[in-house]
Design a protein that fits this description.
heterodimer, A: about 70 residues, 3 helices, about 60% helix, about 0% strand, B: mainly alpha, Rna Polymerase Sigma Factor, Chain: A, Arc Repressor Mutant, subunit A, 9 helices, about 65% helix
Chain lengths: ~70, ~180
Amino acid sequence: MLENAPAQTPPLPDDPENEGLDDAEPSLSPAVAALIGEGLRSYYVRLMDEPMPDRLLELVRSLETQGRASDDG
Amino acid sequence: MTADQNLRQEMLASIPNLRAFAISLTGSQIQADDLLQTTLLKALENFDKFEPGTNMRAWLFTILRNQFYTDIRKHRREVEDPDGIISGKFGVLPTQGARLDLGDMQQALTHLSHEQRETLLLVAAEGATYEEVARITGTNLGTVKSRVNRARNRLAELLGVAPGDDYGPDRMVRAALPSHSTN
């Protein structure tokens, strides 16, 4: 979904989070991993459905208006 | 429809995702809306710098994420739970079952590091690939994999779901199922 992302910074070879991955952490069972994944998606979808405040709606409306104006002009 | 209008449409279409990501990062709807507003304004200011043909949503996520860390450094505040309210309430394990409680999920996410939280959400909720997340977060593939793994394990622990648990039928259900014995 997010292919062709923009510029990147150099990798961090010494990042401690990148060390000993396979040994350091047990893998979740597929059922637990699926449960966590489903929970995260449900949580995220609920956040996406949260109503936006007026100030953001105004910004969105101005974005739409600018888009139309640049198209017309 | 012009190219510019297409890009603006893409930007508009990304707003719900950006907002969900912002709320997840900050743990506060008010801070998330501030962050989203700043992100959109910055994106508009730098619209000419966006490279057509690259991914608008990834570009916006990168701006939002960078702004989030800029805000943290600037204000040096505890963004995810400023009053310790959520942390104080946390500790009640969810009902074990086929679904996780969304409130528990929200609380559990606040206990992950910012880096683990953003990485897990981008992969599991946004559907981004590890390579895409590495570009957005400015890190390498191994770090992304490690953060996802650790974040999922930590979430499982916080939610009271043991890493090796089997979420198949429980003992009572198994007892009611026909035996597979050949006798």
